[in-house]
Specification:
mainly alpha, disordered C terminus
């Protein structure tokens, strides 16, 4: 009897958490009703990245995937363009309030448009797990950092929660600016995948990290408005969005310092040493390092 009561209690709690609290417009969409499919995908992803994949590739040559990566990154650009334009035209350039925007829970054209946008964003975050899969299959294990894994693991869960419970409103601002960043980022990766003849156009890679840090600052400030403005959007969401924005900013800032500032200092020291050595021989050597062999620090390094 006690076991039955306990089981029925868990069932009621499950129904309350995943049915009653959910937005009825999106709750029956694929992968949304229960958290288990998404968690299973993420679990398999982590198992492949940390265990099975490296063992599978141990005695194998790295795959090239040049054409595959070009197509993959091009498709990611298209999806990001769609999400950005949908977010701006569907709300943020029209009737949305930049201070506080509630979720439109209706089945009107605008209400369903923002709900579908949130769902596509969630699916996009799942497809981006392939970034890391390509790393492993190409033996770019040094790219599988804590920052990379944390970002690719957390974002699908966040977007799932937003799609299930709050598909629209204030929180979509983060997805819109993130989609803009991804337009730039995946366009860069597509060019990098095309080969060395395009690498001379990739001098601006460090600006991608700057852009990513700017988005987290914007996300923090935009979310903070909920602390003193009430429009019906859940204020408790800032307990997650604001600390997460700070954490992401710190991780990307640390990556930026390690990848670019230290590299820049090392390059200057190396150049000074060459100049001094050349002066002693009566010549000055002009050493220009375009760093063309390292085109993707935080995502897919492309094969030539």
């Amino acid at each position: 009897m006690e076991v039955q009561n306990s089981t029925s209690g868990i069932g009621r709690y499950w129904d309350f958490l995943f049915i009653e609290l959910a937005d009825p417009r999106t709750n029956d969409w694929p992968l949304i009703k229960s958290p288990m499919p998404g968690l299973t995908i993420i679990g398999l992803y982590l198992y492949f990245i940390n265990s099975w994949g490296p063992r599978f590739m141990k005695d194998r040559k790295p795959f090239q995937f040049k054409n595959t990566l070009i197509v993959y990154n091009f498709l990611q650009v298209l999806v990001s363009v769609y999400l950005f334009t949908e977010g701006m035209n569907g709300g943020w350039l029209r009737h949305y309030s930049w201070r506080c925007q509630p979720v439109d829970t209706s089945t009107t054209t605008f209400g369903m448009r923002e709900a579908r946008g949130c769902y596509v964003y969630f699916i996009a975050k799942l497809t981006e797990l392939l970034d890391t899969v390509f790393f492993v299959l190409r033996k770019k294990d040094n790219q599988v950092s804590f920052l990379h894994l944390y970002h690719h693991t957390v974002m699908p869960m966040i977007s799932w929660g937003c799609t299930k419970y709050f598909p629209g409103g204030h929180g979509t601002f983060i997805g819109v600016i993130n989609s803009f960043v991804h337009i730039v980022m995946y366009f860069y990766y597509m060019l990098a995948a095309m080969g060395p003849e395009f690498q001379k156009y990739l001098w601006w890679k460090h600006w991608i990290t700057n852009l990513q840090m700017i988005q987290f600052g914007m996300a923090f400030l935009h979310s903070a408005q909920l602390l003193y403005t009430d429009c019906g959007y859940p204020r408790w969401s800032v307990c997650f969005t604001m600390p997460n924005a700070i954490f992401f900013y710190m991780l990307f800032n640390d990556f930026y310092k390690k990848s670019y500032k230290k590299k820049g200092k090392a390059g200057k020291a190396n150049a000074n040493g060459k100049i001094q050595n050349s002066k002693s021989n009566g010549h000055i050597t002009h050493d220009i390092n375009h760093n063309v062999t390292d085109t993707k620090p935080s995502e897919n390094k492309k094969e030539n």
